[in-house]
């Protein structure tokens, strides 16, 4: 009688050619964790790529960045609303004195369109190679006015500003970087009053700040743009710089070199020099004298 196999014989290595020889060997827990981690990492990478593609496909177009003179604060929102009806724009607008905006562009700020209250800032950027010469466009013109709070009942005129008492002030934008202030200085120089009024000038950060001083009755009068007064019923116009050779402020637009949306910027400027924008400019007190490229 054949003796039974010992228990350990059940674990002998199978002979060559046996189907058992090709069966996969079980893996240990460490290797299993490594394989699982590898599959998870690969899946995560695929999901990340798909997620990026989805976000790119669904994300809105980059914002058009506009640096605008403070004197355009009242008219620009309406212009942008009209422009968006026919063009794909979603602008981000920063308001400041034109000289301040020019310095920001010179420092590399990603501004696509510069709307200046003076040709001087735009022309300087073009000379420096920071703005596109072919895009330079005169959009509108303005006028300097002398204003005061209605309660003052002031008799002042440009020609009589030399009679301003020593304890009273005249607000004007800082001529170093505010176009309205630079034009105001030219007007006072033409009337031979700039040097005489030096100790009675209150230099404002922009033209809207100069108007605010008059509205708060902190100054006897202010030199601002005619368009600024339209939204200030508590202020009256005492005089206008309308004599022959008086400063004629211009609104000038240009596409800068630092922005990322040059084609859309050019489209916006094309709209702003068109007839629909011209009607909006006029409704806000601007003139189209001298408009064009």
CATH level-two architecture of the largest domain? 3-Layer(aba) Sandwich
- Reading the helices and strands in chain order gives HEHEHEHEEEHEHEHEEHH
Terminal Cα span? 117 Å
CA radius of gyration is 35 Å
Strand order of the largest sheet: 2-1-3-10-4
Largest sheet: 5 strands, mixed
Can you tell me the overall shape?
A: globular
Taken together, the total number of domains comes to: 2
Can you tell me the CATH class of the largest domain? Alpha Beta
Number of helices: 9
CATH fold-type name of the largest domain: D-Maltodextrin-Binding Protein, domain 2
Give a count of the beta strands, DSSP E runs of length 2 or more: 10
Name the CATH superfamily assignment of the largest domain: Periplasmic binding protein-like II
> Which percent band covers the strand fraction?
15-25%
Give the fraction of residues assigned to helices: 25-40%
């Amino acid at each position: 009688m054949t003796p039974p196999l010992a228990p350990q014989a059940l674990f002998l290595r199978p002979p060559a050619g046996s189907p058992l020889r090709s069966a996969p060997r079980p893996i240990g827990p460490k290797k299993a964790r490594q394989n699982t981690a590898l599959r998870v990492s690969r899946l995560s990478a695929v999901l990340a790529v798909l997620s990026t593609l989805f976000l790119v496909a669904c994300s809105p177009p980059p914002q058009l960045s506009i640096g605008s003179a403070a004197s355009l604060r009242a008219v620009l929102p309406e212009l942008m609303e009209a422009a968006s009806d026919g063009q794909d724009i979603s602008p981000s607008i920063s308001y400041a004195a034109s000289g301040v905006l020019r310095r920001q562009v010179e420092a590399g700020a990603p501004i696509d369109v510069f709307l200046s209250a003076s040709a001087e800032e735009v022309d300087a950027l073009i000379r420096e190679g920071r703005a596109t010469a072919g895009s330079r466009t005169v959009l509108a013109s303005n006028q300097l006015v002398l204003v005061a709070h209605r309660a003052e009942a002031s008799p002042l005129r440009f020609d009589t500003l030399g009679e301003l008492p020593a304890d009273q002030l005249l607000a004007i934008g800082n001529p170093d970087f505010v176009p309205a202030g630079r034009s105001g200085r030219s007007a006072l120089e033409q009337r031979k009053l700039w040097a005489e009024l030096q100790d009675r000038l209150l230099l404002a950060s922009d033209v809207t700040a100069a108007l605010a001083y008059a509205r708060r009755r902190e100054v006897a009068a202010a030199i601002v743009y005619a368009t600024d007064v339209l939204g200030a019923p508590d202020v009256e116009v005492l005089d206008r710089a309308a004599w022959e050779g008086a400063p004629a402020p211009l609104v000038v637009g240009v596409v800068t070199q630092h922005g990322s949306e040059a084609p859309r910027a050019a489209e916006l400027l094309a709209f702003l020099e068109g007839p629909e924008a011209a009607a909006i400019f006029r409704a806000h007190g601007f003139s189209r004298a001298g408009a064009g490229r």
